[in-house]
Amino acid sequence: ANLELRSKTHFTPLHHAAMRGHTETVRVLAEHGADLFARTAEGFTPMDWAERNGHIDTMLLL
């Protein structure tokens, strides 16, 4: 799978997982080299999305 595949708004699989609080998925993606600092077209990182949605466990992992 392509870990850095991006949508039209530059979301990666890691952004989607972090936004939804899928901490285990975030862990697996990170362990396999996903870019933790990738930015969306609006400039948000996966950490930003986890924080905006209150996913504390995901934030701690990132």
UniProtKB/TrEMBL annotation:
The keyword Kinase does not apply. Keywords: ANK repeat, Repeat. SMART domains: ANK (SM00248). ANK repeats lie at residues 9-41. PROSITE patterns: ANK_REP_REGION, ANK_REPEAT. It comes from the Eukaryota. Pfam families: Ank_2 (PF12796). This is Uncharacterized protein. It comes from Guillardia theta (strain CCMP2712). The lineage of its organism: Eukaryota, Cryptophyceae, Pyrenomonadales, Geminigeraceae, Guillardia.
